[in-house]
Amino acid sequence: MGQELLLGIDVGTTGTKAIAFDTDGKVAATAYEEYVCTYPAPNWVEQDCKMLIRAVFSCCRAVTERLGAESGHIAGISVSAQRSCTVLADSAGQPIKMISWLDNRATEQVEEIAAALGRERYYTITGMPLAPTWVLPKLLHTREKAPDIWSKTTRVLQLQEVILHALGVEDFYADEPDATFWGTWDSRSFCHSREILDAFRLSPHLFPQVLPAGTPVGSLSSEAAAQTGLREGTPLCVGIGDQNSAALGAGVVAPGDVSVSIGTGGLATVLLDRFYRDPKGQAMITHHASHGLWTFEGLQNAAAGVFRWFRNEIAALEWQQYGEAVYDRLNEMIAQTPAGANGLLMLPFFAGSAAPRWNAEARGCILGLTLRHTRSDMARACVEGITLEQKDILQSLSGCGVAFQKVRIVGGATKSAVWNQIQADMYGIPCETLAVKDAAALGAAICAGVGCGLFPDLEQAVKRMVQVERRYTPDPAVHEIYEDLYRRYTQAYEALDAGGVF
After folding, report:
1. In sequence order, what DSSP letters do the residues of 362-420 get, joined into one string?
2. Facing residues of 347 across strands?
3. Are 20 and 29 in contact (CB under 8 A)?
4. How far is CA 83 from the centre of its chain?
5. Which pLDDT score is estimated for 399?
6. 464 burial type by CB count under 10 A (0-12 exposed, 13-18 middle, 19+ buried)
7. pLDDT tier at 498, thresholds 50, 70, 90
8. Tens of pLDDT along 331-379?
9. Eight-state DSSP code of residue 290
10. What is the pTM (predicted TM-score) of this model?
11. How is residue 23 annotated by DSSP?
12. Element (H, E) at 239
């Protein structure tokens, strides 16, 4: 009999991955499918739940085909999904509309919330800086601007609940970290805030039941088994949102552990064993996958998504010439360009600024261009700009009083050795990559391992399944260059903001 396997499904913003792992964290089979967002109006971003479900089924089918008979050894399934997606569902539990976390349509509703509660009071309750990213402002926007949709809405879901339901879970169950993204959740008390619900005439029954990550909630249905090739009756377990899952897949399970994830979006996380609020109100405080712990988070709206834009729009020639190997060519171009990109500075706010500045009106810029600059300079400036925003986030995280000794770096960007070294040089502390680059999928598999009883708890599962691959040590001379670049980055943002450009 073969070794038992765990299936982690990561439903991201631009694509879905399904990865089967053995209990030592080694990849047994993987599949990926890419898809798109739609942009119905300026600042509006939506996706089709049916498209996402089809991608999940397709990836699972590809994994089972690659595993062959071994697919019968999958002992449990769990899901990591993009966080803060607003899924409005009808009385039958069918999605009516999905508004992406990237969507910034609800800026007026943010001001309504601020007027009703006050920004400081809202942050004290929720641990979430008031922003149009969260579910609550989008609910208010829908109620005010699209009453026809609101009149049909009986459930408010996030994406993980939708995927688990499609796989066979009869009801809808949310995880604790995702609950904070509703914007109605009191993360001190692990419940909805009656003050917030009453202020906006919302019922707690709109939202699903909240359970700890790794809780078994159902089994794979016969319909899903036919679509995926997976074994009917395979246990389905509550997972966690993608960035929380990536932190778990990076081994962030002890107080003071730090991870930086650079995928389509980005996130820096620090694990805390005590309730905390950022005195500046800039960082998100969410629940950790382990019940009773918290994570101090800094969100980056657009990270590697900005580099993908660069690939498509600026490096179109390389994209056409090299195809799927284009990133190898871009890495060569970046490595040939000195730190500081020959004087270029990119501000990566292509989807507004999240932590620590929280400015939905911020926009991307490339500053310092001259006739002598090349696409290589611009490629380096793009990667450096994305990393500068992460450095800005880490600077804000330092206020929690935790001394960082190392950073676990995860996400698609870690496939680039040159970008990994840029991160170490930028932060000024060692950065470690992991044997499994797809940490969010691994985090989901870890939840499945606990839920189906292969591990007693998340900590033991992480100890077994998470392995460090390589350590990158910062170059002091390059770090000094980046310290100066960071000063120019903050000055450029502040000048553009003060000048009314943003």
Report:
1. ---EEES--TT--HHHHHHHHHHHHHHHHHHHHHHHGGG-PPP--EEEESGGGG-HHHH
2. 365
3. yes
4. 6
5. 66
6. middle
7. very high
8. 999 999 999 999 999 999 999 998 888 898 999 999 999 999 999 999 9
9. S
10. 0.84
11. T
12. strand 235-241
Contact 240, 180 (CB under 8 A): no
Q: What angle do CA 398, 403, 408 make, to 5 degrees?
A: 90
Q: Which two tokens stand for residue 100?
A: 């992406």
Amino acid identity at 84:
S
Tell me the fold of 5-250+438-469. Nucleotidyltransferase; domain 5 (3.30.420)
Check: CB of residue 126 under 8 Å from CB of residue 113. no
Length in residues, the chain: 502
| 162 within 8 A of 53, measured Cβ to Cβ | yes
Residues 87-96 have pLDDT tens digits of 999 999 999 9
Q: What is the torsional sign of CA 419, 423, 425, 426? A: positive
Q: Where are the domains of the chain?
A: 5-250+438-469
Tell me the pLDDT tens digit for each residue of 129-177: 999 999 999 999 999 999 999 999 999 999 999 999 999 999 999 999 9
Per-residue model confidence as pLDDT tens digits over 302-333: 999 999 999 999 999 999 999 989 999 999 99
Residue among 378, 367, 317, 408 at smallest CA distance from 490: 367
The pair phi, psi for residue 367, each rounded to 5°, is -110, 145
Distance (Å, whole) CA 142 – CA 133: 14
Phi, psi of 96 (to 5 degrees): -95, -45
Sign of the CA dihedral with 187 first, then 400, 267, and 407 last = negative
Pairing of strands 266-272, 294-300: antiparallel
pLDDT in tens, 9-59: 999 998 999 999 999 999 999 999 999 999 999 999 999 999 999 999 999
Structure tokens at 27: 């990849």
Whose tokens are 């769990």? That residue is 78
Give yes or no for a contact between 97 and 46, defined as CB atoms under 8 angstroms apart.
yes
Distance CA 489, CA 475 (A): 20
34: burial class by Cβ within 10 Å (0-12, 13-18, 19+)?
Answer: exposed
